[in-house]
Recover the amino acids of this structure.
């Protein structure tokens, strides 16, 4: 397990703990909020009752006063009784006075005398302040509870903030996880490709060694064979003039001398063209490493790009413009020849892709921990069908044997395998339906790369 | 005063594939006097037997490789400039041999006749210059 993975695990554990704590707090707050709400509800209900009772008792007092003033017989007994029943029921818990009130009501009901009515009125007059006192107390309690409500509200706001923060963190984590897994997938692809390229490189080196010897024999014997053939034909011609013309014609016809004279150069030219093609393939392979230093050196990538562009400009076709923006990027530890070759390859490809009137833009810029080299062209772009294949060895769209199909595959090998960088293709360009951009990213500090020649094999057969 | 043409330079071609030796001999039959050797051991015997102006030594050979022979040439103090011929010029060992001055140059296979001719001429000219400088120095020392 790497250090970064360990760190990620610790980070996740802390986050989980924080989430659990927040959840616990949330539950506590919720319980508290419910309790406060229940109590406030009860207090409010009691206050409302008190207000109603006050009305009732005031009414009873007023009525009792009326009874006392008017004398017997005018009492609305049912209403007074109802009021008294309610008072008695509701205030039972509050004070024993309510029972007293009831007793007075019963006495009033039994006697209907003005004296009892006055007594009830007096009781009511005494009870009202009690109710008012109780209501005051309840108000105070309500005020106290209001503070609690404020606290609950505050708590809820804080919790909502924490929950939001946690949500943001969780989302970010999820995104990071997704990015990490994407990067992992990318890395696996790169690794697989590296392995494939390494295997390819190794077998190419082996193959080129095995084939270069016979190729040497074939290629270098063409010229002697041509000379020999010409000499033989000349000899036949010379001899022909020395023998009877009849015999000479017969020999010429029997051995197709005229045809040989014409076809020999053509046949040898065909061998020459074919061997040149094979030679070009091997030369392309070797060009990325020929004269390459066995170790990296600190190179000024700006100077390297400048040199590459100067080289391309010398053979820039008419009507193609080449714009370069080379920011100072400082140095990076690279295999200079190989990276120069990659740059050259990318720019040359772009120049060939745009055709007359086209523009190639080269850009070199420094980024956080790497250097970005981009080559953009406004050519037709790379069709979707072949986009995935452009980095495949021997894949080429150039005709007539002009391309070996090795440039991009070896370039990617150089960048990915030897420098721990990336080489990506973007086509068509963003917001357009044509154009191509290659992006080469080179880390300033080498992360991997074997530090030897790219196609090194065993030193001895 | 003699007007006979200058003798053809004597070249020792060391390669385990005889066709490679024969190809050099064929291509340069009018310009060079080619002696072939198919192994380091054979080359050693040829060096004992006669002297050469240039050695073309293949790197990859079964048994002892070309660099073994180059080291020996230097160790023996022979005034014999060498070119290392190889089918892959990128091997550290090959590059190291060049850096160490064991050979004057590296010739990639398949070689190009023009290129090889230039190499041989250049190496011989350098060698001649060096020996004439040596001769002049001796003259100066003698005086």
């Amino acid at each position: 397990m790497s250090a970064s993975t360990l760190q990620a695990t610790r980070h996740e554990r802390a986050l989980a703990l924080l989430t659990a704590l927040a959840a616990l707090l949330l539950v506590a707050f919720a319980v508290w909020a419910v309790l406060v709400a229940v109590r406030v509800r009860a207090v409010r209900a009691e206050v409302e009752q008190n207000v109603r009772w006050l009305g009732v008792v005031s009414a009873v007092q007023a009525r009792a006063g009326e009874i006392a003033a008017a004398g017997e017989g005018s009492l609305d007994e049912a209403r007074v009784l109802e009021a008294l029943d309610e008072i008695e029921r509701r205030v039972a818990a509050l004070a024993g006075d309510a029972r007293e009130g009831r007793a007075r009501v019963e006495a009033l009901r039994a006697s209907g005398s003005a004296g009892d009515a006055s007594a009830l009125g007096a009781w009511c007059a005494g009870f009202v302040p009690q109710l008012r006192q109780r209501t005051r107390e309840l108000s105070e309690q309500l005020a106290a509870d209001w503070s609690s409500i404020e606290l609950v509200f505050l708590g809820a706001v804080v919790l909502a903030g924490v929950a939001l923060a946690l949500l943001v963190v969780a989302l970010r984590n999820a995104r990071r996880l997704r990015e990490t897994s994407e990067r992992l997938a990318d890395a696996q692809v790169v690794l697989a490709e590296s392995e494939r390229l390494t295997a390819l490189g190794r077998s190419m080196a082996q193959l080129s060694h095995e084939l270069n010897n016979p190729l040497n024999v074939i290629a270098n014997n063409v010229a002697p064979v041509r000379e020999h053939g010409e000499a033989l034909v000349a000899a036949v011609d010379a001899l022909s003039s020395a023998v009877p013309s009849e015999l000479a014609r017969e020999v010429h016809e029997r051995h197709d001398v005229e045809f040989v004279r014409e076809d020999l150069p053509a046949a040898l030219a065909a061998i020459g063209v074919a061997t040149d093609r094979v030679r070009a393939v091997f030369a392309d392979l070797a060009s990325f490493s020929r004269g390459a230093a066995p170790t990296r050196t600190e190179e000024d990538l700006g100077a390297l790009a400048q040199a590459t562009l100067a080289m391309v400009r010398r053979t820039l076709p008419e009507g193609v413009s080449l714009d370069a923006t080379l920011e100072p990027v400082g140095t990076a530890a690279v295999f200079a020849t190989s990276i120069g070759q990659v740059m050259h390859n990318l720019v040359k490809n772009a120049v060939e892709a745009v055709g007359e009137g086209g523009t190639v833009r080269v850009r070199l810029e420094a980024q956080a921990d790497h250097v970005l080299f981009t080559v953009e062209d406004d050519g037709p772009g790379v069709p979707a069908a072949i986009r995935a294949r452009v980095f495949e060895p021997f894949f080429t769209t150039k005709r007539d044997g002009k391309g070996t199909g090795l440039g991009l595959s070896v370039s990617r090998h150089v960048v990915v395998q030897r420098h721990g960088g990336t080489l990506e293709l973007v086509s068509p360009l963003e917001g357009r339906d044509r154009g191509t951009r290659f992006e080469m990213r080179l880390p300033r500090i080498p992360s991997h790369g074997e530090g030897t020649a790219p196609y090194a094999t065993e030193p001895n057969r | 005063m003699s007007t006979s043409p200058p003798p053809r330079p004597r070249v020792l071609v060391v390669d385990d594939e005889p066709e490679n030796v024969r190809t050099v001999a064929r291509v340069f039959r009018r310009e060079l006097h080619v002696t072939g050797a198919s192994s380091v051991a054979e080359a050693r015997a040829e060096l004992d037997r006669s002297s050469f102006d240039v050695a073309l030594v293949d790197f990859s050979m079964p048994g002892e490789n070309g660099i073994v022979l180059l080291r020996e040439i230097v160790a023996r103090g022979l005034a014999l400039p060498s070119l290392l011929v190889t089918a892959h010029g990128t091997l550290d060992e090959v590059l190291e041999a060049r850096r160490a001055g064991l050979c004057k140059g590296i010739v990639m296979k398949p070689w190009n006749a023009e290129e090889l001719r230039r190499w041989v001429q250049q190496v011989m000219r350098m060698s001649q210059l060096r020996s004439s400088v040596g001769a002049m120095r001796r003259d100066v020392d003698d005086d």
Observations:
- The CA atoms of residues 429 and 435 of chain A lie 5 Å apart.
- The two ends of chain A are 40 Å apart (CA to CA).
